[in-house]
Q: What sequence folds into this?
């Protein structure tokens, strides 16, 4: 299993000072930043667009882990790739050509990822696992930060880890939603290597200690 990566989610940052919070993440030595893109249709919330990603890109060398929670991701791959997204993850649930969109992400120079919601079975992602470098298993219903962790997702993570090992695939397994030091340990034991943390990270009294706890898990 790969070494653990922490990807703080700027959805939980202070939106009046995003650049400052991104610099604070970078100053800790963290490598990844998670950026949630919401359209108000696929999920009942709105967040950032390509311009936000581009503006932050000009101020940071972090690895931008961009999660598209939108109805028509195939139409927005190019704007986000051009804005500086390093990894673009797309959901299996909307009706569009997932395989073609993943190929397009890689053609544009970004890393492709796939996402499944808590109620989506692993079977829905299996056809695409050989195309991706990461699968994100949502541990809450997407759309809002601060939700409680869904324990039942752990079984899906174990299934993904078994597939990864049995097929000698190299995708990372990421979780997002209700991730703190306790739930992260449960996920790590199930096979997770990449952890998105929003509220728990940005509200932590000691962000460095939080980072160390996540990144030191065996």
A:
């Amino acid at each position: 299993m790969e070494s653990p990566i922490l990807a703080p989610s700027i959805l939980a940052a202070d939106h009046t000072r995003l650049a400052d919070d991104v610099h604070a993440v970078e100053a800790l030595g963290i490598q990844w930043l998670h950026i949630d893109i919401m359209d108000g249709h696929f999920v009942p919330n709105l967040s950032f667009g390509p311009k936000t990603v581009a503006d932050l890109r000009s101020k940071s060398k972090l690895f931008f882990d961009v999660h598209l929670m939108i109805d028509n991701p195939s139409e927005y791959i190019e704007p986000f790739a051009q804005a500086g997204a390093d990894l673009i993850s797309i959901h299996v649930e909307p009706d569009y050509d997932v395989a073609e969109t993943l190929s397009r992400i890689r053609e544009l120079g970004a890393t492709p990822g796939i996402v499944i919601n808590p109620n989506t079975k692993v079977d829905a992602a299996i056809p695409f696992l050989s195309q991706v470098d990461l699968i994100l298993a949502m541990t809450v219903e997407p759309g809002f930060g601060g939700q409680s962790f869904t324990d039942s997702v752990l079984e899906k993570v174990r299934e993904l880890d078994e597939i990864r090992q049995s097929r000698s695939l190299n995708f990372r397994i990421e979780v997002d939603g209700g991730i703190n030091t306790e739930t992260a340990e449960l996920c790590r034991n199930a096979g997770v290597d990449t952890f998105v943390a929003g509220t728990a990270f940005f509200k932590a009294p000691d962000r460095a200690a939080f980072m160390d706890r996540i990144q030191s898990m065996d």
User: Anything to note?
Assistant: The chain has a mean pLDDT of 95. The two ends are 9 Å apart (CA to CA). Residues 36 and 67 are 5 Å apart (CA to CA). The chain has one domain: 5-215.
